[in-house]
Amino acid sequence: MTRHLLSAADLDRHDVEDILASAASMHDLQRREVKKVPTLRGRTIINFFFEDSTRTRSSFEIAGKWMSADTINLSAKGSSTSKGESLRDTAMTVDAMAVDALVIRHHASGACHQVAQWVRASVINAGDGTHEHPTQALLDAYTLRTRLHDLEGRHVVIVGDLTHSRVFRSNAILLRTLGAKVTVVAPPTLMPSGIDTWSAAEGFATSWDLDAVLFGAEPVDAVMTLRVQRERMTGGYFPTAREYTVCYGLTRDRLARLVARNPDVLVMHPGPMNRGLEIAADAADAPQSVVLDQVSAGVAVRMAVLYHLLAGDDTEGAAR
Ligand code: NCD
Hints:
By secondary structure, this protein is an alpha/beta fold. It folds into two domains: about 10-135 and about 295-310, Rossmann fold (3-Layer(aba) Sandwich); about 135-295, Rossmann fold (3-Layer(aba) Sandwich), CATH 3.40.50. Helix content is about 40%, strand content about 15%. The protein has twelve helices and nine strands. It has helices at about 15-30, 55-65, 85-95, 110-120, 135-150, 165-175, 195-200, 210-215, 240-250, 250-260, 280-285, 290-310, and strands at about 45-50, 70-75, 100-105, 120-130, 155-160, 180-185, 205, 220-225, 265-270. The strands form two sheets. It has a five-stranded parallel β-sheet with strand order 7-6-5-8-9. A four-stranded parallel β-sheet has the order 2-1-3-4, sandwiched between helices. Helix 1 (about 15-30) crosses helix 12 and helix 5 packs across helix 6. The longest helix is centred in the C-terminal third of the chain and has 20 residues, at about 290-310. The protein is globular, with a radius of gyration of 19 Å. N-carbamoyl-L-aspartate binds next to helix 2 and helix 6.
């Protein structure tokens, strides 16, 4: 594995299998009363979040702490970034303290790639702009594998605000690495430009018609709904919220029709959810929903990633 985790494309199938195997041991650890292991004792991890986060930030912090690393959280507001310091100066300043890993979330796509060129520490991309979020894709793959076992030939539908979604970009890459069939669905205005070339190269399908995909010839194993990212929108991407829900929401009616075809269909959402917009409360809380399994897997997968980047390739030793 490389020194950094910047993109899902950094991982070949072997790397993904290694990380998911370690994550399974970490998940066992998560069920123990005392969760601490000495694996990363003496290592220092800085979680640098220039954008808001609940799940990603706290799970990285918990992951580091359970592995006995010293973890420190920084945010743009409480750091010198708010005094006008450049990203390069901030990154090099932190790196000069001899930290081992920098977990970075930033509003600019490509920020983590940039930082990786300036520092000696391992850089982990915890979401850069609308670009990538590789640990989210890993935890989604872990969740899917727990239920579906092998993903080879399984059909995963990703629907929502694809233009602004780093979760979609990392998932499209990683799910294909694991052999899943992927169809991505969005209204034309939220379909990224240039997607035709990318989907042809990566081997996934695209559609504007959710019902045609969900109830078409190809059975669906999982539906991943993505948040409508209003904070990244400058113009009107769809006429009304109601219209979006009718055409692209995972409504109670759509879920009922899906369950009638496949009672074991999985409902996923990376969070945070806009209940009633992209996903109905009935779907978010349905027995088919694995939304909280995704959150739980997030800690185990991030422990596994930290372990592989900082402690080596001994998959067996991960939870020792
Ligand atoms: C996502 C993110 O921030 O990229 N959430 C997450 O990490 N769980 C998706 C989103 O914000 O909609």
